[in-house]
Design a protein that fits this description.
heterodimer, A: alpha+beta, Beta-Lactamase, 21 helices, B: Rossmann fold, five-stranded parallel sheet, 5 helices
């Protein structure tokens, strides 16, 4: 129950109690007053009674005085008593009207009083009329004294009654007064008690509130300090409808943005300073805030100094009980540095990734602390054979040979790396395809700032090739040593000063020196005097400028044997870097014999070339000059036949005809000779060639030239060869013309072109069913000017087959023939 | 036919006589001017040498040019004709004994219009001349005359 409620209840209880107490006090006071009134009433009644008795006494006295003196003045009190006694007795009657017994007594009293007054009246009248003596006797005989005694007794009775009533009423009054006092005291006590309790309660509550307020104040101060020193600006916006208006912002806004504390409360402050490029996006996101009740976004915000800062803004929408948005509260953090750091971290990571990605010769990858692969570069893929997606998450022990895994080497390596920071070894590793590589492995433990082990960086290099190369190098060295020792040539090495460092057995044989004799001596001892200066200058020049006149080439020089004899030599000189020094190795061959042979060969070649040139000029000349006279012979013979026919007899005409035919045969002979010469001299242009098509074309030409002939020509399709088209045309032209010619006397002539396998290669053939030849003379078939048939039988120059043979030989092929007299001939050739 | 001239460049008197006979037999009636070597031919066509200056006559309709000639050979004559604006369009037919490949290639390279080998058989020779005349003097449209 709340404090207020408790106080309310307590207060109500107190009011009820006080009202009760008050009522009780009121009642007892009223009762007391009543009782007191009764007491006063009683006292009044007594006073009236005593006054009435006193009046009676005054009246008696007055009467006596008058009696004695006769003076009427003494009668004044008696008159007043007479007047007053009636009222007094009526008052008494009213005062005691509630008490019948008293009323009875008062009636008696009134009777007595009236009797007495009547006696006084008689007395007085007696004196006036009787004189003093009658009066004295009246007085004495009047029996006044007894009356007075009766009155006095009755008054005493009434007084006693009143006294009793008074005593009784005083007792009641006292009781009532005590009750009222008690009620007042107890009510006051209750009220005080309640007041004390309430006071205690309130003061306790007040103390609690005070403490709470103090605590709250402290908390608020601390909160403000926290906010002020925080990097996050806290803000609140009230929402009315769709518009936001800033209502509060934490003080640190000034420190963070440079704006005074009032500026952010300007309605357009935020929008004005939002970066124009971010404005549309962020405003669009605001609708998400209304939809999802919260929004996290980042944008650029202009500080007071005009610079833009990246801001991380997290806001939350608050709604009232009805769900209407009422307020947006949020926080704002300047993340410019964070973003820059992030960007530079990203850039740095990207650079590292690119770097690792570009490394092909090294496998670079990371293991987690338990040895599972967590990253993989292309070099790793190349060296290990696994793709990244295959291997990430696997344990690196799969790179080890099974026996190494069994011996616990992978774990030992990680332990060593973890303990020492670095572990390195060269050993066999196994690739995905099961092949082995000789690998240089470095494992580095990777720890964070506090020394916690994060994992291991592994760099592996494939040294298989290098190891193989080393072995190959050793083998190669062995080979070359053997080569150098067994070589016929002199192999001599020299240092950069030109001093001999190696002299092989071949050199010993050629120069006549023992290796021990010349080692350390200058190379110049091996050359004739006249070359030595040039040699020394050459070495100096080469070392100084790198200009090589002999190094890297093969040159012919002269050498000098130990006996001083000079001989021609061929020198191949190579230089090579040996550490920082340049060294030379020369291979020297004694070319005395070869020089002699070369000289002879050169002479012969020159002769052949001269002969060829002559032949060429001869052929050219023949082509032009040898034919011109023939044309003259033929032409003028014809002219004679035409212009002088009438003067020539038949014999003359026959002779002229023979002259013409002889000259024409001569022309054909010249052409064939030139052809033969040409197939020898012309350049070869080998290319793909369809022999079938070529043969078909030639056969068609032959048929056109000799349309009367009926020859069955069968050419196999698809004879594709690689040869010189011009020269092969000469070959087929000759063979087909021969076949055409030698089947001239056949009625059913047949020519076939095709190929047959011969020694694993195709042999092409041209076959006819013509005159054939005697195999005895097959050896003469391909010789120039050799004919197996008479000109009368078959014309020809005997040069065609010689030409064919030359062409086939120039193609590196072979040509041969088969035939029988009267049974046709077949000419084969390979290419 | 008409008065257009054929220039025959031929050093062999026999060939000259036979060529003229063959032209005659084919009823080719153009005037034939004979030059007996390259120098004469160039003199006639370009007016160089002893008769330097402009030739007094028109460019011939056709030149029949032998290759093997004294002093300046046929290929050189052809080269100079083609280099001269007056004659570089002149129809030139090589008429020679040889059919060496290099002669063929060189002639065409230098701009010969035709290459005809003189056959030994006079009947064939006459036929060749007939066809030459038919083609170059009748069928072929000559290039427009060059006036300089």
């Amino acid at each position: 129950m709340s404090l207020e409620r408790r106080i309310q209840i307590g207060f109500a209880i107190a009011v009820v109690i006080i009202l009760g107490v008050g009522a009780a006090a009121l009642r007892s006071t009223a009762a007391t007053v009543e009782s007191a009134r009764w007491v006063a009433h009683t006292l009044e009644a007594r006073a009236e009674l005593e006054a009435a008795f006193a009046e009676l006494i005054y009246a008696e006295t007055a009467v006596r005085g008058y009696v004695i003196t006769g003076d009427t003045t003494y009668l004044a009190p008696y008159d007043s008593a007479q007047a007053r006694l009636g009222g007094l007795l009526a008052g008494l009657r009213a005062l005691t009207s509630d008490n019948p017994a008293q009323l009875t007594r008062l009636d008696s009293l009134a009777t007595l009083v009236s009797v007495r007054l009547e006696r006084f009246h008689w007395t007085v009248e007696t004196r006036r009329t009787g004189g003093p003596a009658a009066a004295a006797r009246a007085v004495i005989g009047g029996r006044g004294k007894e009356l007075m005694q009766l009155v006095r007794g009755l008054v005493a009775q009434i007084e006693d009654e009143e006294a009793r009533l008074l005593a009784q009423r005083s007792a009641v009054l006292q009781t009532k007064a005590r009750l009222a006092r008690l009620a007042a005291w107890s009510g006051a006590l209750v009220a005080v008690t309640l007041a004390v309790i309430a006071g205690a309660l309130v003061s306790r509550e007040l103390a609690g509130r005070l403490r709470a307020e103090r605590t709250l104040g402290e908390t608020q101060t601390r909160f403000r300090q926290v906010l002020a020193s925080s990097t996050a600006v806290i803000y609140a916006n009230t929402i009315s409808g769709a518009s936001f208006s800033p209502s509060w912002v934490s003080e640190n806004v000034t420190r963070i943005t440079g704006y005074g504390p009032e500026e952010p409360l300007r309605p357009t402050w935020w929008l004005d300073n939002l970066h124009p490029d971010d404005r549309a996006r962020v405003l669009a996101e605001m609708s998400a805030l209304l939809a999802k009740d919260q929004l996290t976004t980042e944008y650029r915000f202009r500080s007071k100094d005009g610079t833009y800062h990246w801001v991380h803004d997290e806001s939350r929408l608050l709604r009232d009980a009805a769900g209407t948005p009422i307020e947006v509260v949020g926080s704002w953090v300047d993340i410019t540095d964070h973003r820059q750091a992030e960007a530079s971290l990203r850039a740095s990571e990207e650079r590292l990734r690119l770097l690792l990605g570009s490394v092909r010769d090294y496998a670079i990858y990371m293991l987690d602390p338990t040895g599972h692969v967590v990253s993989w570069n292309p070099g790793a893929e190349q060296i290990k054979g696994y793709r990244a997606e295959e291997i990430i998450g696997e344990h690196f022990s799969r790179f080890y040979l099974p026996e190494d895994v069994a011996a616990g080497r992978p774990e030992a390596a990680l332990r060593a790396a973890a303990a020492e920071g670095r572990y390195e070894e060269e050993n066999w590793r196994i690739r995905k395809d099961g092949s082995r590589i000789w690998a240089d492995v470095v494992i580095n433990a990777v720890r964070d700032d506090r020394g916690t082990l994060l994992g291991f960086a592994k760099v592996t290099r494939d040294l298989t090739e290098r190891q193989r190369a080393e072995e190959a190098l050793r083998a190669s060295e062995d080979r070359f040593r053997i080569l150098a020792v067994t070589a016929n040539d002199a192999i001599i090495s020299a240092d950069s000063h030109g001093n001999i460092t190696y002299f092989n057995p071949g050199a010993e044989r050629i120069f006549g020196y023992r290796a021990a004799e010349v080692n350390g001596k200058p190379l110049t001892v091996l050359m004739p005097e006249r070359f030595r200066d040039a040699h020394r200058a050459g070495i100096a020049r080469y070392l100084a400028t790198g200009e090589a006149r002999v190094v890297g080439k093969t040159v012919e020089l002269a050498g000098q044997k130990n006996n001083g004899a000079e001989f021609p030599l061929e020198l191949s000189l190579a230089s090579w870097q040996r550490g920082s020094e340049i060294a030379f190795t020369a291979i020297i061959r004694d070319v005395t014999e070869r020089k002699r042979v070369d000289e002879t060969l050169r002479r012969h070649t020159a002769q052949v070339e001269a002969a060829n040139a002559e032949l060429d000029a001869f052929a050219y000349s023949v082509s032009h000059d040898l034919r011109a006279p023939l044309r003259g012979i033929d032409g003028f013979s014809q002219a004679l036949l035409e212009d002088y026919a009438d003067r020539l007899d038949d014999a003359g005409k026959d002779y002229l005809t023979r002259v013409r035919s002889a000259s024409q045969r001569m022309a054909t002979l010249i052409d064939d000779l030139l052809n033969l010469s040409r197939v020898t001299r012309s350049e070869m242009h080998v290319g793909p060639l369809d022999l079938s098509a070529l043969a078909t074309g030639i056969a068609e030409d032959l048929q056109k030239r000799d349309p009367a002939r009926r020859v069955e020509v069968a050419i196999a399709p698809g004879l594709h060869v690689s040869a010189d088209p011009g020269l092969m045309r000469v070959v087929l032209q000759n063979l087909l013309e021969n076949a055409w010619k030698f089947t001239g006397k056949r009625t059913a002539a047949r020519i076939e072109v095709g190929s047959v396998p011969h020694d694993g290669r195709p042999a092409y053939f041209v076959k006819d069913n013509g005159a054939g030849f005697d195999m005895t003379y097959v050896g003469k078939l391909f010789g120039a000017f050799q004919r197996l048939h008479g000109a009368q039988e078959f014309d020809g120059t005997g040069i065609g087959l010689a030409t064919v043979q030359r062409v086939i030989h120039r193609h590196g092929g072979r040509v041969w023939a088969e035939g029988a007299v009267g049974d046709g001939a077949t000419f084969y050739f390979t290419l | 036919m008409d008065d257009k001239v054929i220039l025959l460049v031929e050093d062999n008197a026999d060939d000259e006589a036979l060529t003229l006979r063959a032209l005659k037999k084919n009823n080719i009636k153009n005037d034939v001017v004979v030059a007996r070597d390259g120098v004469e031919a160039l003199d006639y066509l370009l007016g160089s040498g002893p008769t330097a200056g402009r030739p007094s006559h028109d460019v011939p309709q056709l030149v029949l040019l032998d290759l093997k000639l004294p002093r300046v050979d046929g290929l050189e004559v052809l080269r100079r004709l083609r280099a001269d604006p007056r004659t570089h369009l002149l129809p030139v037919v090589i008429l020679t004994s040889s059919k060496e490949e290099r002669d063929l290639v060189n002639s065409y390279s230098l701009g010969a219009n035709s290459y005809v080998r003189k056959p030994v058989d006079f009947g064939e020779f006459t036929e060749a001349i007939r066809q030459l005349g038919l083609y170059w003097l009748i069928l072929n449209e000559a290039p427009p005359a060059k006036r300089t």
